[in-house]
Give the backbone structure.
Amino acid sequence: MNKILVPVDFSKYSTEALKVAAHIAKKQNAEIVALHMLGITEAVLIKNEEQEVAEAMYYMKLAEKQFDSLLQEDFLADVKITERVLNHKVFSEINDLATELDIDLIIMGSHGTTNLREDVFIGSNTEKVVRTSNVPVLVIKENAEDFKMESAVFACDFKLPSLKAYHNAIKLFERFDMDFTLLYINLPGERFRSNLEIDERIKGFLTKADPETADEVFKKVVYWCDFSVEKGVFHYSNKINADIIAIPTHGRRGLAHFFSGSIGEDIANHATKPVITFKM
C-alpha cells in the first residue's frame, strides 16, 4: 500500500480518520494525502472578480494555517504526509483525484445516524464518496485509539457481480494479514434459501473467483439468519467481535440486489465498527 487519501475538514471526525490513516501508514510505510475541499459558496461566486479572488485567498490561507496546526499533532510524527487544498466541494470528484494520484485507500470519518430508515445517507459526504469511489473506502466511526485490523467480516450475496469486490477485499485482507469470515445473511419469506441452495451458490462463486483456493476458503463461510441484511451483519460481527465490517457496494439505489436500497451504504452509516466498502 503506497498512498492513503484522507478528506479533512478539521472536524473531530476527520481527525479520527487521520489518526487511523497514520496508524496504517506507519505499518505499511505509506504516504498520506490529506485533502481539504474549500467549497467556496455561491455568495462568493456572484461577487465581482476582485472580491471573489480576495475571499478565495482568505479561505485558502485559513486552510493552510489549520493544516500547519494539524500537522504538529504527535500521531503524525514520522509519517509522510502531503496536503492538497482544492477550491471546490464536489465530493464525487474525489474519485477522480484518487485515480490521478494512484490512491490505494480512502479513509473518512462519519458521525453516522440514529435513524434506521432506508435513505440514511442522503446529503452525506461520506456516502457520496462511497458511491463513486473505485478504490476501497474505510469509514471510521469510533475512537481511533482502539482501531485494529486483525479480523474482518465480509458480507456478500455471492452473486457474480460481487466478484470484483470480493477479489479486492481478499487482496486487502492478505496485505494486512487479517483473519476473515465470509458472511451470507439468510432472510425470511421469499428470499429464504435452504443450506443446499446457499452451498451451491457460494461454492460456484468461490470456484469462479479462484478454483485453487475455493475449497479452503469455503471453510470460512458462515450463514446467519436474520430479519434484514443490516441487522444480520451487525449481529454476527458483534457476536465474534470482528474489528472491521467489509461490504461490496454498487453505488446506485433501487436495484434488485442483495444490497437492495444501497444496504452497503446503510451499513457504513450505522455500524459502530469501522466499515470498508469495495466497489462492485
Notes: The domain at 145-280 is CATH 3.40.50.620 (Rossmann fold). The two ends are 21 Å apart (CA to CA). Strands lie at 3-7, 31-37, 81-86, 105-109, 137-140, 151-155, 179-186, 221-225, 244-249, 275-279.
